[in-house]
């Protein structure tokens, strides 16, 4: 019998109302059942939201430094459990151990950073125009938040949302992706062990329709924080808009690395290989386009292909593996579909483009790292998010043309430029339409102390991480204290005295 993992509602681990369980299997080896997880529905959501609403009444009154201490303790426990959680994560979603260790580390960094905000969360104290009167602004919690997260960063992304949400005084109902519920259970257990009171963090696992929809639409949920596809993000935003709910979205990307003729080409190739094939390309920030100056495109492509063909594909738990499997069959089919689309559109597949045959590969959702050349900017493989190990190489004749191609998609999450020319670098930083820009580094690898998010169809104007995330999880309250003992009329009496 494999282990059964339950929902966490009001401080108790409970089975789903349906009495049903869903399977979580290892994408590197389908015969390996990771566990059975509660297959929740709207009734579990109801119970979890009610618990979160009750939890909010006391949690919001606990001083922020105290709330932050609990988050800090959770971070310390993640340090102790890092290796075990990284192994669980590789087993359930496939990316290699180095990367799952990085994922847990990102959650640790977020815990420590967010905990610091418990003693900051600055507002303004400002001069006011009338005598014997005082003005300031304070951050207040919003209420119950729905946290809906993807499988590609099973602990880092929930941590970006849940840690600051808690420090700010909100309570949460967390619905993780069904491909990575074990990392969610590990995360929530850690918070419970760190002393989060009952009802403050609730976990409901299950399908998007059965759990996600009733959760984000629930009238007592005052805010939604979602990372996932642009399509689902639009639907969530519509629902949230109707109820005037706070709604923060991190959606798709079609990130590009621009390589100018003066770039350090080996560095640019290193960046492209890491940016395109880490996490098997399943990152919002993944490099899916390399836009290369025509003077260096053939050298760049040659060196790139040589590197890609040496990448060691295999189970993420095996030492020496550089790229693991895709997360599930659906994702594999999407990648296969886009490779066919690329070929039909007339792009040249220069390496990869197949499922690797034989042996252990038969048991998992493996796909070769793939590079297309002769890609035109208007092709679908240069426009649409693939979320897999597929890199398109495009040609440009100048910085200006490169920037136009780079900006010519619906998305705007991450971008990078490789050049030794500081003027060109800064011009690119100004002109690139994206929330994140790297100079001489790949499009992946954001750190938690700076804002994370994007423009255009990548989001709806919010940011996670850094100080910026406080704007998602707090409401401003402006406070005026009049100690003059008389009626003072702003804008009127101040003029008379002048
Ligand atoms: C994501 O792909 O959704 O910058 C998050 C990075 C990671 C986070 C990626 N730190 O690539």
How would you sum up this structure, described in words?
This protein has helices at residues 42-59, 64-93, 97-117, 156-167, 181-193, 208-217, 230-242, 265-277, 297-310, 329-345, 399-407, 422-431, 470-473, 493-497, and strands spanning 4-5, 7-9, 12-14, 21-26, 29-38, 125-126, 133-141, 144-148, 171-175, 201-203, 221-227, 246-250, 255-259, 287-293, 348-351, 370-373, 390-396, 411-412, 414-418, 436-439, 455-456, 474-482. It has 498 residues and is α/β, with parallel strands linked by helices. It folds into two domains: 4-251 and 459-478, Aldehyde Dehydrogenase, Chain A, domain 1 (3-Layer(aba) Sandwich); 255-439, Aldehyde Dehydrogenase, Chain A, domain 2 (3-Layer(aba) Sandwich). The strands form six sheets. Strands 15-16-17-14-13-19-20 form a seven-stranded mixed beta sheet, sandwiched between helices. The protein has a five-stranded parallel beta sheet with strand order 10-9-8-11-12, sandwiched between helices. α2 packs antiparallel against α3. The mean pLDDT is 97. The structure holds 2-aminohexanedioic acid. Residues 106, 152-153, 283-285, 444-446 line the site of 2-aminohexanedioic acid.
């Amino acid at each position: 019998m494999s282990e059964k993992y339950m929902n966490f509602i009001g401080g108790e681990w409970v089975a789903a109302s349906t009495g049903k369980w869903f399977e979580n299997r290892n994408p590197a080896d389908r015969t390996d059942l990771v566990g059975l997880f509660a297959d929740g529905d709207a009734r579990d959501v109801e119970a979890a939201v009610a618990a979160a609403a009750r939890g909010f009444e006391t949690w919001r009154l606990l001083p922020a430094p105290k709330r932050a201490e609990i988050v800090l303790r959770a971070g310390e426990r993640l340090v102790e459990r890092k290796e075990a959680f990284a192994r669980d994560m590789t087993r359930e979603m496939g990316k290699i151990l180095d990367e799952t260790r990085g994922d847990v580390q990102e959650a640790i960094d977020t815990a420590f950073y967010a905990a610091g905000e418990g003693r900051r969360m600055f507002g303004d104290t400002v001069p006011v125009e009338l005598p014997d009167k005082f003005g300031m602004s304070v951050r207040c919690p919003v209420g119950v938040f729905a946290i809906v997260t993807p499988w590609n960063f099973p602990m880092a992304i929930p941590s970006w949302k849940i840690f600051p949400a808690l420090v700010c005084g909100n309570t949460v109902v967390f619905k993780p992706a069904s491909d990575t519920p074990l990392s969610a259970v590990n995360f929530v257990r850690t918070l419970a062990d760190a002393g989060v009171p009952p009802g403050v963090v609730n976990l409901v696992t299950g399908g998007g329709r059965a759990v996600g929809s009733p959760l984000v639409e629930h009238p007592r949920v005052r805010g939604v924080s979602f990372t996932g596809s642009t399509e689902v993000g639009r639907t969530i935003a519509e629902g949230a808009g109707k109820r005037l709910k706070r709604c923060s979205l991190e959606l798709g990307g079609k990130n590009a690395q621009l390589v100018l003729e003066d770039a350090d080409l080996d560095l640019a190739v290193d960046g492209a290989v890491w940016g395109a094939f880490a996490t098997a390309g399943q990152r919002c920030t993944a490099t899916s386009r390399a836009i290369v100056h025509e003077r260096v495109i053939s050298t760049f492509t040659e060196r790139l292909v040589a590197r890609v063909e040496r990448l060691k594909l295999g189970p993420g738990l095996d030492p020496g593996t550089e790229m693991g499997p895709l997360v599930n069959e659906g994702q594999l089919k999407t990648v296969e579909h886009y490779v066919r689309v690329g070929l039909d559109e007339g792009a040249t597949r220069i390496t990869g483009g197949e499922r690797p045959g034989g042996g252990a590969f038969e048991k998992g959702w493996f796909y070769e790292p793939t590079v297309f050349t002769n890609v035109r900017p208007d092709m679908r493989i240069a426009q649409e998010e693939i979320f897999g190990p597929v890199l398109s190489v495009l040609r440009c004749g100048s910085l200006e043309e490169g920037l136009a191609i780079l900006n010519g998609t619906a998305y705007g999450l991450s971008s990078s430029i490789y050049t030794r020319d500081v003027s060109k670098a800064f011009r690119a930083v100004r002109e690139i339409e994206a929330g994140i820009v790297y100079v001489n580094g790949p499009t992946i690898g954001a750190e938690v102390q700076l804002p994370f998010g994007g423009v255009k169809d990548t989001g709806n104007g919010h940011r996670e991480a850094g100080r910026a995330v406080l704007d998602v999880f707090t409401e401003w309250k402006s406070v005026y204290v009049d100690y003059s003992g008389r009626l003072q009329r702003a804008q009127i009496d101040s003029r008379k005295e002048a």
